[in-house]
Amino acid sequence: MSVDLFIFAVLLLINALMTIAMLLAARTLGQPRMAKMLAAAFGCNVLLYIADPIYYFYFRGNPWANLLVSVFATTTPVLAAMAYRMRSGLPDKTGYFLATQAAALLAIFLVSSGYPDRGIAGAIVPFYAAAVLLFGVTSALLRPGRQLLLGERPIIFTCIGMAAVEIAGGLTLALIPPQGSELLDQTYTIIVFLGLPAMTVAAGLFSLYLMGGDLAERLRLAADTDSLTGAPNRRAIEASGTRLMQEANAFGRPLTVAICDVDHFKDINDLYGHSHGDAVL
Known about the structure:
There is one protein chain. This protein is an all-alpha fold. It has helices spanning about 5-30, 30-60, 65-85, 95-115, 120-140, 150-175, 180-225, 235-250, 265-270, 275-280. The N and C termini lie far apart (about 70 Å). The mean pLDDT is about 85.
């Protein structure tokens, strides 16, 4: 088995496992849309690593075959970026991503048709993937004034790492002359073999960790807040009250408890019904 075929097989296996993991997460971690979109992203990678070796060994230089492989390669980062924007409650910008993807595919087709031996034709995909990943994840998680939540920092670092691998690979491909270069081919193989499997595993694991953290936070809020008003319930008040009294005793500070009550609230329920009373609360 050649080194290239071995790399394809490793990446295919990793992405297949991550696809299955995301589909399972869609049933258990409480964010089915995000998990399914990430499963689709890893699934596109599975199709990519099936189609890529077929192109590499049998249709190399065919611009239409290259375009088909590029569709899979550019769809993966788009789906990942949309998944993280969806989780953050932001517009998924489907139209924007489709327009940029179409522009990238058009550039790939024109370059591969006019200059089939130019390394720049292969460099467009990694550059595009890096740009989409950086925009999608950073715009979703690193907005001004937004505090990072549990599990988001590893995703940001993984995104930056993945983008760095893509950029390094793209630069290497862009430098390959029309007559080829064994040194640059080996360099690209090393970058792909060392970088992509590690970053793919990290992206999958940290995405699962992020969704698990989101689920834990939702369960904590459900346990500590009143479902109607969102105010702290008795359990949360007792816990925070104990902590505040301990701090007051430790530092010798006075502690005040203020109690508010709504007079004649029963009259609201009796006159207007309990649904209106709930709205008042």
